[in-house]
Specification:
The structure is a single chain. This protein is an alpha+beta fold and about 120 residues long. It has one domain: Roll (PH-domain like). The chain contains 2 helices and 11 strands, in the order E-E-H-E-E-E-E-E-E-E-E-E-H. The strands form 3 sheets. The chain has a 6-stranded mixed sheet, with no helix packed on it. Strands 4-5-6 form a 3-stranded antiparallel sheet, with no helix packed on it. It has a two-stranded parallel sheet with strand order 2-11. A hairpin with a 2-residue loop joins strand 5 and strand 6. The radius of gyration is 18 Å and the shape is elongated.
């Protein structure tokens, strides 16, 4: 299972793009990667990077695949499969998930509302 987007570009980060990203199964075929109607033949891959990431202490991966004019990103669960040899050239890196300004704004709003709710409960309103 994967979340997939073409809206992130080269940056590996948390953002609202992932909230509306494509959900599906990433198929690693003999000659191509496939996710829904996206089919990426291995010969069209200019660069592939598999980032090992952690989100809230949960390990996972982000696979970034660059083709002619399109950068795909696939959010993947941790598993042994991704640690072994893959049928396409891939560079492996340790990644750190950054934050988009929208992601920061949502978190600030959430914690602000939570703080207000707790404060009003303590005051007995």
């Amino acid at each position: 299972m994967t979340k997939a987007t073409t809206a992130e570009g080269e940056g590996v980060r948390r953002s609202l793009n992932w909230a509306v990203s494509r959900r599906g199964i990433l198929e690693v075929r003999e000659d191509a990667l496939a996710c829904g109607d996206w089919v990426i033949p291995y010969q069209e891959i200019e660069e592939a990077v598999l980032y090992s990431v952690s989100q809230a202490f949960i390990p996972g991966y982000v696979l970034m695949v660059r083709t002619r004019g399109v950068i795909y990103q696939f959010g993947l669960n941790w598993g042994r499969y991704w640690g072994r040899e893959l049928p396409f050239p891939v560079r492996r890196e340790k990644g750190k998930l950054g934050y988009s300004w929208q992601s920061v704004a949502v978190r600030v709003a959430f914690f602000g509302l939570l703080g207000y709710w707790l404060w009003s409960r303590i005051r007995g309103e």
